[in-house]
Design a protein that fits this description.
The complex is a heterodimer of chains A (112) and B (206). With 112 residues, chain A is mainly beta. Chain A has 1 helix and 5 strands. With 206 residues, chain B is mainly beta. The chains are: A mainly beta (112), B mainly beta (206).
């Protein structure tokens, strides 16, 4: 039944948040709400987008950065209310939709 | 006893709950129920409310049931069901109850007819263990012995047979969202039955 799918799509649309346009290969920074006891603070995470999967409310992104010499990859729901905001730091033109080769690139910010 | 409403399973999706976690959710379309008759201890010997819900063509309704609707002057409804209540005087024929009965954060119980699975073996139907495929085993999924000593099979023994298509109630599902405009209820987790299957929803009481 098509009518039923429409109902779900309409509901899901309500959960979609306004996010900037970005693509795999771009450098983004997102601010995650982290609660420490009663206090809540924003924790930034900046890195290169390795993967965007899913669509609508279910869109997930994988972001990689190197922290203290260790590669860290985080996969988060793009529309999660826990992300306070997402900023695009730098746009890059990569040819792959899954630019995993970026894992072997040490100076991510220097790529063109 | 809480009031029950009739709904239709729309399908499943993902929902961000109050803590921002993505959880599995089921969307239910709740058709408003109209009070058809109020049963009182004085007249009927027990307290209950008879509800009707869902649109249906008049020619598809049997005449004795049609009469119930004619009596209060409303078009017939697809489902006619009765719910026991403590205080029937709160209800009067012709009034409607809808999704707004529920609010986000509440707990509900949902009853439906589970999907039919056909004739199933003991492993799927009763969650028996299957035996190893190797190490010299000869049978893997058979039910095994029926018992010993008796020359009969004890009643109630778990055997292969028809599975599913049974009335199942899932209790304590959290209401994630209520959409009064579209008459939708978003509930955490799964709910029995196929999409477009009829469901009964009531508030969970401890």
């Amino acid at each position: 039944m098509t009518g039923m799918d429409d109902l779900i799509h309409a509901l899901e649309a309500e959960q979609v948040r306004e996010i900037p346009d970005f693509r795999p290969g771009d450098i983004v920074r997102f601010y995650e709400k982290v609660s420490e006891g009663a206090r809540e603070r924003l924790q930034p995470f900046e890195g290169v987008v390795l993967k965007i999967s899913g669509s609508g409310t279910r869109t997930m992104m994988t972001v990689r950065k190197v922290a203290a010499g260790v590669g860290v990859e985080r996969t988060v729901p793009v529309h999660s209310p826990r992300l306070e905001r997402i900023e695009v730091v730098k746009r890059n033109a990569v040819r792959k939709s899954r630019p995993y080769w970026l894992r072997r690139v040490s100076r991510i910010h220097k790529i063109e | 006893m809480p009031v029950e409403l009739i709904g239709r399973k729309v399908g499943m999706t993902q929902w961000f709950d109050g803590d921002g976690r993505a959880v599995a959710a089921t969307v239910i379309e709740v058709e408003p129920s109209v009070v058809v008759e109020v049963k009182t201890p004085d007249r009927h010997g027990y307290a209950a409310v008879q509800f009707g819900a869902g649109a249906v063509a008049e020619r598809k309704v049997k005449r004795p049931i049609l009469g119930q609707f004619r009596k209060i002057g409303i078009p017939p409804r697809k489902h006619l069901y009765e719910v026991r209540v403590d205080d029937p005087s709160r209800f009067s024929p012709g009034t409607e109850v809808g999704v707004d009965l529920f609010a986000a954060g509440e707990m509900v119980d949902v009853t439906g007819i589970s999907k039919g699975k056909g004739f199933q073996g003991t492993i799927k139907r009763w969650r028996f263990h299957s035996r190893p495929r190797s190490h010299g085993h000869k049978w893997f999924r058979r039910p095994g012995a029926a018992g010993r000593g008796l020359t009969k099979v004890v009643k109630g023994r778990k055997y292969p047979g028809h599975d599913g298509a049974q009335r199942v109630t899932v209790r304590n599902l959290a209401v994630l969202a209520v959409d009064n405009g579209r008459r939708l209820l978003v509930v955490r987790g799964s709910v029995p039955g196929p999409r477009s299957g009829a469901l009964r929803i009531r508030k969970h009481d401890a």
